[in-house]
Design goal:
The complex is a heterodimer. By secondary structure, chain A is mostly beta strands. Chain A has no helices and 12 strands. In chain A, the strands form 3 sheets. In chain A, strands 2, 5, 6, 10, 11 and 12 form a 6-stranded mixed sheet that branches. In chain B, the strands form 2 sheets. In chain B, strands 2, 4, 5, 6, 9, 10 and 11 form a 7-stranded mixed sheet that branches. Chain B is globular and about 45 Å long. The chains are: A mainly beta, B mainly beta.
Chain lengths: ~120, ~120
């Protein structure tokens, strides 16, 4: 069965420092996509970054990068130079690319950025 | 471009009443998803459609829940009769056909906050 695990319910980081949010996944499907979404207190879900299972390089989007370690089945999100506006809930998600496009989400990590 | 549009944004209803949540996906997207978010269970996929056809409804909690997509620009999620445990945020989301660079990134609506009293 497919599963996404985020083991950090909450994280604190000092403004301007980098932070890593952990995500591990489990699937036997060779083709899948990994995503990170941000949910601020206002409630909307904001797409941050995508990594395909066949991608050789780690994905980057501005201050966000995805540390993809396929053998370990981990897809950690790294946020560099944290800002106060980064305080939010962060969800890791996985989509299997065969047999449809069902996407499942982890439980989330709440990030608090301290001034 | 307009994003995924959901209505109503907030709904408070009495137990036993019918609730209908509406969604307009992003134009051109092939996939439409309904998710439910609660503190206890997180984000759960209820059902998703591909080209208006339901593909997987295994997440629909029970027969009180039904979803339809009569055309490419409209979907409904109906709860009848509603119960207090249905109180949650219901997200509609849509996704284009997957491509090499973005997979099938899901774009969410702002959610419908449902409270059943």
């Amino acid at each position: 069965a497919q599963k996404i695990t985020q083991t950090q319910p909450g994280m604190f980081v000092q403004e301007k420092e980098a932070v890593t949010l952990d995500c591990t996944y489990d699937t036997s499907d060779p083709s899948y996509g990994l995503f990170w979404y941000k949910q601020p207190s206002s409630g909307e879900m904001i797409f941050l970054i995508y990594q395909g299972s066949y991608d050789q390089q780690n994905a980057t989007e501005g201050r966000y990068s995805l540390n993809f370690q396929k053998a370990r089945k981990s897809a950690n999100l790294v946020i560099s130079a944290s800002q106060l506006g980064d305080s939010a809930m962060y969800f890791c998600a996985m989509t299997l690319n065969t047999g449809g496009f069902k996407t499942i989400f982890g439980a989330g990590t709440r990030l608090f950025v301290k001034a | 471009d307009a994003g995924v549009i959901q209505s109503p944004r907030h709904e408070v209803t009495e137990m036993g009443q019918e609730v209908t949540l509406r969604c307009k996906p992003i134009s051109g997207h092939d996939y439409l998803f309904w998710y439910r978010q609660t503190m206890m269970r997180g984000l759960e996929l209820l059902i998703y459609f591909n080209n208006n056809v339901p593909i997987d409804d295994s997440g629909m909690p029970e027969d009180r829940f039904s979803a339809k997509m009569p055309n490419a620009s409209f979907s409904t999620l109906k709860i009848q009769p509603s119960e207090p445990r249905d109180s949650a945020v219901y997200f509609c989301a849509s996704s284009p056909r997957a491509n090499r660079y973005s997979g099938n990134t899901i774009y969410f609506g702002e959610g419908s906050w449902l409270t059943v009293v």
